[in-house]
Amino acid sequence: MYYDYKLVDGVKYAHKINQAVGLQVFDLVIKSVEHNTKLGDDVF
Fold first, then answer.
1. DSSP secondary structure string, 1-44?
2. Does residue 15 lie within any of the structural domains?
């Protein structure tokens, strides 16, 4: 389940995700979303 959509640079992103796997339930919270960030060549 995706919810708590917020607008980031003109695009809506879900900032909370609820996922059930068997008997376990995971609640994920997105703290930040960034577009077009500069990455060094060492990352690849």
1. -EEEEEEETTEEEEEEEEEEETTEEEEEE-----SS----GGG-
2. yes
